[in-house]
Amino acid sequence: MSQEKENFRDSIGTIKDDGKRNVIYPKKPKGSFYKYRTFLSWFLIAFLFLAPFIKINGNQFLLFNIIDRKFNIFGQPFWPQDFYLLVLSLLVGVVFVILFTVIFGRLFCGWICPQTIFMEMVFRKVEYAIEGDRTKQIKLDKQEWNREKIGKKSLKWTLFFIISFLISNAFLAYFIGGDTLIQHIKEGPFVHLGTFLKLILFTGVFYFVFAWFREQVCIIACPYGRLQGVLLDNKSIIVAYDHK
What we know:
The protein has 11 helices and 5 strands; from the N terminus they run H-E-E-E-E-E-H-H-H-H-H-H-H-H-H-H. It is mainly alpha-helical and 244 residues long. The mean pLDDT is 87.
């Protein structure tokens, strides 16, 4: 491949030549595969919110309580002395990711990745519902700050914050326990100020990621995305545009 065709490797698609953010305005997707992705996403989102409250033999289905050093995997408790099992699981997971990528390409990124699911199936849908499709979003961002723009942006950002807060509650339940989280909610934030501050911190992180950072997570921060260069070859299945 000639040097001219390799120039795309010298820059990031979300950054302009002058270093400013290149905002991505994706066109609203449709089609049968998108419907299948939507159904799978609903299932995975429901699982994310329900898993911390499912009990098996009195044990939380998934629990990663680092402070108390207690971990439940599919309802089976694990303790610090079982750490070697975690190491073996991580090694098996790494091998699985490599083999999965070689065989199926970036199927994980489009169908199962939590970043993709929340970004495309939750936050994007809210954005489409309030601001419209790609053309309307571009037009709205370019126009002056009038009543319409302030109203739509305020509504969108408010809903983004509420959704981020709900995700934070579900996320925190995996670390402190679903029953503990419900108890802290009933007793109020002032009784458990530490839990409330963690919720606000997580909410801020999720809001930053899904309201602003967005696809840059996949390009810059995601370790799986960074490994794609060594996991893919010329025969791997990838998503690409027809150069014609």
